[in-house]
Task: inverse folding
């Protein structure tokens, strides 16, 4: 299981689309496709994060969880504004976007995780994994030796910056604390959910990169 997780995690954070940004060979039409689709995704991600906040307010025994999740929601507010300005810069129309299959599947997955019967430990694990994949992927494009085009630096900074890394570590701590106390049934569900997140992230990158 660990080997599979590791393999998938590397697959999700070192996917060809990300590697093409890092080595400067990225096809700008792929980038634009990603931008339009990710805006749609993020608008669905907000209610998911709100559902995690509700679970935290009911289940969490640690006063700090709410602040961390609320901080995530606040930064999504900035992020939506950023998507709008970035899209106008790149001439990507945001209304009437045809939502790709991979995006639809991912959104359906999030909708299921919003259900009240989904355990807080499972939901927060998914939340952490979703954020961590972006953090690790884009931070990779900012490392020494990367040849990320200057016009994509801002995108990579958005998720690859140190503050976002710190936020992901806070989410990881919350998830770990919940999983330590979880029943084996919940633990299994959290593991499966984690793997599903990685699969959806890979499919999302593939959709951006390919011509599907
Ligand atoms: C497909 C996907 N996964 C994760 C993120 C990062 N979270 C919020 O922005 C994202 N924007 N898009």
Result:
């Amino acid at each position: 299981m660990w080997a599979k997780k590791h393999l998938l995690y590397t697959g999700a954070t070192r996917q060809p689309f990300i590697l093409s940004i890092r080595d400067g060979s990225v096809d700008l039409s792929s980038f634009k496709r990603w931008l339009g689709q990710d805006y749609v995704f993020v608008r669905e991600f907000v209610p998911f994060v709100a559902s995690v906040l509700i679970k935290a307010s009911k289940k969490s025994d640690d006063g700090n969880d709410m602040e961390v999740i609320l901080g995530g929601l606040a930064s999504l507010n900035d992020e939506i504004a950023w998507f709008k300005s970035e899209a106008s810069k790149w001439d990507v129309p945001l209304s009437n976007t045809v939502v790709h299959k991979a995006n639809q599947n991912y959104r359906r997955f999030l909708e299921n995780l919003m259900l009240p019967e989904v355990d807080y430990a499972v939901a927060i694990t998914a939340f952490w994994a979703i954020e961590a994949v972006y953090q690790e992927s884009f931070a990779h494009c900012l490392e020494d030796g990367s040849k990320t085009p200057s016009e994509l630096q801002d995108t990579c900074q958005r998720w690859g910056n140190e503050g976002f890394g710190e936020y992901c570590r806070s989410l990881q701590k919350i998830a770990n604390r919940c999983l330590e106390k979880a029943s084996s049934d919940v633990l299994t569900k959290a593991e499966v959910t984690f793997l599903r997140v990685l699969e959806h992230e890979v499919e999302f990158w593939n959709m951006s990169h390919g011509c599907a």
About this structure: Residues 38, 41-42, 45, 79, 130-131, 134, 201, 204 surround NFM (CB under 6 Å).
